[in-house]
Amino acid sequence: MKFFMRFMPAALVSLSIIFMVSSAKANEKEAEQFIRTLANQAIQVLADTTLPLDARESRLRTLLNNSFAMSVIGRYVVGSSWRKMTQAQKNEYQKLFSEWTLSTYSARLGGYKNQQFKIIKAVDSGKKDIFVRTSINQPSSGKPIKADWRVRKIKGQYKIVDIGVEGISMLLTQKREFGALLRRQGIVGLIEMLRMRNSKFPAVSG
Amino acid sequence: MGKFIKATPIFYMMMATMIVGITAASAGSFEEGNTAYQQTDFIKAMQIWKPLAQTGDARAQYNMGVMYDQGRGVAKNAKLAKKWWLKAAAQNMPEALHNLASSYLFDTNDANEHKKALAWMTRAAELGLVRSQYSLGKMYLHAHGVEKDEKKARKWIEKAAIQGLDKAQYNMGKISRDGIAGTIDKVSAAQWFLKAAIQGYAKAQNHIGKRYANGDGIEKNEAEALFWTTLAAKQGHKIAQKNRQTLLDKLPPETVKDVMKRVKAWPHKK
C-alpha cells in the first residue's frame, strides 16, 4: 500500500497531463465554435430592421453581456481599488462598466453593413486561455481589423476575458485609463465618469 | 462668327448658383442619411450628412460628432467629435451640449475645461433635457467639475425626478431621507422610492420594501414589503435577497402565496 501511495501523486499528474494534451485541440475547436455562435447570434440581432438601431444594439449588449466574464474583467481593471469599494459601489461600478465596455466595443467592431467576420484560428495559450483570432472586414477602411478574442472556461462555460484589437488589449487599455482616473478622482469619480459616458445621446433620427 | 458671352462677375455668380443648385439637388436629405444609418451603412450616412453638416444642419453636425465619437464608419476621433458637437451646440442643440459635457468633464484636470463642461451641461439642463438635469445635479452633489452645492444638486435632481427619471426619483428618496439641502422628510422619501420602484428600479424597490417592513415614512405593510423586496431580489439585488428571506420566514403561507401571484403578474420588464 505504501508503495502505491508514494507513486500515486505522480500517476495522477501524468494522467492530468495526458488529458490536457489530448483535450487541447478539442478546447480550441470549442472556443472557435463559441465565438462563431456568438457572431452569428449578433448578426441575427442586428439584422432585425423592424427595430431602430438603438434597440437592436441594446439587445446585442444583453447577448454579449452573457458571453463576457464581466465581473472578472471589471475587477481586474480597477486593481486594488476593488477592495476599497463598498458593496453598493461594486454593484454600481460593475453595472456601469459592463454597459460602457459593451457599447464601446460593439460600436467599434460590429454591426456594419456588408461586414465580414472571419475566424482564422484558435490558439491555446498553454495556460488557461485560448485566443480565437478573427479578421473583421470594416467597410470604412480597406484593411481588415484583427481582433483576438481571449476566452476561458469558467464554471464549465466559455467566456470572453479580453479582446485584442490590432494587438492592443482592452483589459490593459482600460486598466491604464481607469488607474489614472482613480488616482485623480477616486472611486466615486470613476463611477460618475462611467455614468456620464453611458448617458451620452445616440444619433438623432430627425 | 458666333457671339461670345463675356465672363462678367454676374456670369460667374450665375455659374456658381447653378453649381450649388445642381449639388444640392443631388445631395441626400437628412432622412436619407438616417435610413442609411439605421441600415448600418455608416459610410453612406456620413457621405449624406457631411455636406449638410458643413452647410449648418445642426442634426447632421451632431450626428457627425456621434459617428466620430463612437468610431462608426470612421476611425474614432475625439477631436473631430468635439468639433462637430461644438458646431451643433452653438445652435443650442441640447444633445450636443450634453454629450460635450459628458465626454470631457473627466478627461482633464484643467479647471477651464471643467468650466466649459459645467456651462454645456447647465445649458442642456435649462433646455429641459432630463438626463442633463440629473447629471448636473450629480455634478453639484459630488463636486465634479464644480464646487459642491447641495442646494443646486437637489434642485436639478428634483427637476429630473419630476420629469419621471427613475434614478432621479431614487436619489430624491435619499435626499429627502437624509435631509440634504432641506429637512429630513421620511414620508417624502418613501413616496420618491415608491415612484422609482413602480418604474422597476431595483434599488428603489429594495428601499421601499424596507420602509413597508418597518413602517418608516409609510404605513407598515409586510405583504407590500415582501412584494417589492421580491421584485428587487429577482433583479439580482443581493441585500433584497437577504431581506426577502427574513420576510418569507415571518409571513403566513397564504400571504406569501398572494404576494407571489402579484409578483408573477407584475408587468414591468426592464
Taking the sheet with the most strands of chain B, its summary is:
none
The pLDDT mean of chain B sits at 90
* Main sheet: strand order of chain A: 1-2-3-4-5
> If interface size is counted as residues with C-beta under 8 Å from the partner's C-beta, which chains form the largest one?
A-B, 33 and 40 residues
Model regions low in confidence, pLDDT < 50 over at least 5 residues of chain B: 1-5, 20-26
Q: N-to-C SSE series of chain A?
A: HHHHHEEEEEH
**N-to-C series of helices and strands of chain B:** HHHHHHHHHHHHHHH
Helix-residue proportion of chain A: 55-70%
Average pLDDT rating of chain A: 82
Percent strand of chain B: under 5%
Net shape of chain B:
elongated
**Which descriptor suits the 3D outline of chain A?**
globular
Strands of chain A, count: 5
Specify the oligomeric state: heterodimer
Note the gap between the termini of chain B.
Answer: 80 Å
Query: Over the alpha carbons, how many angstroms does the gyration radius of chain B reach?
Result: 27 Å
Terminus-to-terminus distance of chain A: 82 Å
Low-confidence sequence ranges of chain A: 1-24
Most strands sheet of chain A: 5 strands, antiparallel
The secondary-structure class of chain B comes to mainly alpha
Task: Explain what the structure shows.
The complex is a heterodimer of chains A (206) and B (270). In chain A, 60% of the residues lie in helices and 19% in strands. With 206 residues, chain A is an alpha+beta fold. The longest helix of chain A is centred in the first third of the chain and has 46 residues, at 2-47. The N and C termini of chain A lie far apart (82 Å). Residues 1-24 of chain A have low confidence and may be disordered. Chain B has helices spanning 9-26, 30-38, 42-54, 58-70, 78-90, 94-104, 111-126, 130-142, 150-162, 166-178, 186-198, 202-214, 222-234, 238-250, 253-265. The A-B interface holds A 46, 49, 52-53, 87, 91, 104, 107-108, 111-113, 139-141, 181, 184-185, 188-189, 192-193, 195-197, 199-206 and B 30-31, 34, 37-43, 59, 62-63, 66-67, 69-76, 95, 98-99, 101-103, 105-106, 109, 131, 134-135, 138, 142, 144, 238-239.
